Amino acid sequence: MLPLIAVAGRIGARGKVSRLEVSFAGRRYLDAVIRAGGEPVTIAPRELSDEFAAQILGRFDGLLLMGGSDVDPAMYDQEPHPRTYGVDRRNDEFEATLCRAAARIGLPTLAICRGMQVANVAFGGSLHQHLADLEVPSQVAHGPHGFPSPLEGVEHSIEIAPGSLLAKALNGCDVPPAISYHHQAVDRLGSGFTATAWATDGHVEAMERSDGWFVCLQWHPEDTAHSDPAQQRIYDAFVEQTGAERD
């Protein structure tokens, strides 16, 4: 039986796809899971208790959190920056609750971009709300000029901690470039997380937990995973881990 991967769905506004609000998951994420041998199942966003979230996730072999718009700054005790965009507290609370439940039950988890930021906030961490406004602006492009209007990310190099879950996932592959599409980044790490990859400007590009296979990436491996074996290898390792946990 294929490992079942819970993909935290996202609430989207009505429009071209439907006259009603939609719950959706990005195709590139689903395709990367399928190539890795998993079966992705989108979980509809809703209000969840910690206990019910654990019950839902108990039916699955892994959890995937996608990229997307900004997390509500109120969740880490800040006021919104003028460039904060797309906030929907329903999505934030739903994904944060799933993160905590997954960690509690030891469910393998892969969190991408916004997913990493949600996970960090879910465990008491904070975010830099707009990298361009830092006292020492980064010389690394973490998103396209005019973000978020252009839809494709930009490449930059990263350094990965040897011996980390991420390094093991790459399994000897050369360190791939980060495909980045974000204007925020992790500031204070959430409880239980350790940084395991960095951009050349020092910003955290990956973090993980020591109490299970819980890996968070600030970049988007799924963007080029169809043609870059190193990026696909991250999804492969995630799905392999879900199968190992089930066995």
From TrEMBL:
Coiled coil: none annotated. GO terms for cellular component: cytosol. GO terms for biological process: polyamine catabolic process. PROSITE patterns: GATASE_TYPE_1. It comes from freshwater metagenome. One of its GO terms (molecular function) is gamma-glutamyl-gamma-aminobutyrate hydrolase activity. Gene3D superfamilies: 3.40.50.880. This is Unannotated protein.
